[in-house]
Amino acid sequence: MAKQPNFLLGNGHRLTSPVRVTKMPGEKLAPYPFSEARDRLIGQISAAATDFRDLPDLACPDDYAVGIITLHPEYTAKSYFPVALLREARMEAIGSRPAKVTPVKWGKKAPPEESPTTELFVAARRTDFTDLAQSLPNWNESHPGAKELFEVEAFRAPKHEDRVQTISERRDAPLLEIVLHTNGMPKPRRILEAFEAYADSLDLEPDLDRRFEVGGLCFFPLRAHRSQISGLSHFSFLRTIREMPRLRPLRPFVRSAARSRAFSVSLPTTPPLDPQLRAAVFDGGLATEADLTPFANAHEANGIGAAVPEYVEHGTAVTSALLFGPLHKGMDPPHPMVASIIPVSWMTNPEQDTTSQATRTFSSTIH
What we know:
The protein has helices at about 35-55, 85-90, 125-135, 160-165, 190-200, 225-230, 310-325, 355-365; strands spanning about 65-70, 90-100, 115-125, 150-155, 175-180, 210-215, 215-225, 240-245, 275-285, 300, 340-345. The protein is of the alpha+beta class.
């Protein structure tokens, strides 16, 4: 069988044109020469190592602590990540967050100004931080990781303000959300064990049964007196202490104008679209005079106060809307969208902490 012929393009060289390849820009001008970058960090790392040594032993699981590296604003790209420096210092990056910093110097001609950067959380043994502080004065430019020293603008041990957010709750013992780093050491499970022991030393009981973990962080509730928060903030793998977020209570707006006139409807007897689908409505409850029992079963969270008529009316309307959609006079409601609605009453007393109870009611009922 004959092969497919190959065609030649005559005078193809006439279709070409010179291509000018621009040279890649050279390396950035380092903001600090090696000796200055090294000398700047010697004092900072020494101070941080001292702070780590002063921490209670119970606050440092297996003698590990967490420091904060502030990267120079010109070296926040992934390609500049100081891998060699961290390896030589026996540090492991366990998280990051955005920040702003005004560097002492930079490679631009204009004076330094406040710029966005990244803060790295790094974990290491307390002895490793001490060893780095002692060995750093002997580093030269050929030392492993030395070429990345100028990428670090600052190094410090976390302070109270790094970890504790403003708490607006007026109670003496507010409900807090604790956020811990859960990696950075050979046995990560030791972090939770150590925190539980450290909290116990402060007469606190973290609710670890309700924890959830995501992206190297662990979140769980803890109730503590305000006087105990400062001591709690010393735990080395603590990322944040903040007020426990709440579901925002919906307070319906009661119109002063005349409301739409009510009209009677006949509830449908047809089956729902999906007989297996169930839903929950977190609102003001369900009016007893609304005969929705074939489709909805009302539940109240533990410890909730007396019903507020406007809230109950709003909860009933929301439940009806979820079941049938908009209603029109003279037209029968359509068949329900779901098989069962569970109106969970949690907003009748906004002053009480009922969000968690309502959530538990929902969890135990929906399953």
